[in-house]
Description:
This protein is mostly beta strands. The chain has a domain of 70 residues. Helices cover 12% and strands 34% of the residues. The chain contains 2 helices and 6 strands, in the order H-E-H-E-E-E-E-E. The strands form 2 sheets. It has a 4-stranded antiparallel β-sheet, with no helix packed on it. A two-stranded antiparallel sheet has the order 5-6. Strand 5 and strand 6 form a beta hairpin. The longest helix is centred in the N-terminal third of the chain and has 18 residues.
Amino acid sequence: MKQLPWILVGLLSAALLFSLFFRGCASPQSGQGDTVWLPVRVDTIRDTAVAPPVSERPAGTDTARLPVYRPQKLSGSASIPDSIADTVTVVSDSLSTGKDSVDVIIPLTEKEYRTDDYRIVISGYRPQLVSAEFYRRTQTGVVNAPAPKKKRWGIGLSAGYGIGLSGKTEPFLGVTLNYNLLQW
């Protein structure tokens, strides 16, 4: 009987070392799955080769009123001043009527650029973006966590009070093979 406490201390030490050694081999608990988090990566793609327009069609006309330049009459000198040397002057009957502007008809066009990734429509004289549609390839993945494995059978240390082989109630301390009825 004097050796019983030392045997129990040895068994408890062995159980402690066994549990520490095999802790990493345990199955994943709830909330742990096979989810792998990769570092965030941003790709920037610049495309300098613009594809020709898929379609180009007339979109109507626009009337713009442009100013008419009338040079001042030169007084006393037959040479052209440096300030208007680059200017083209047109002398016609319409200028002599005193108009300060002329209506000019400007044709408008609409161009459509399209690839697998985008669709862009540009329209007019002095182009303005009419619409843009981007088609991004997005892939979404869902990782399901595995259900925790319910372990019913186990080996453990037990302490209790029960009926022994002699028929008397006595305390018990030892290693047992057990079946778990409830888990928490």
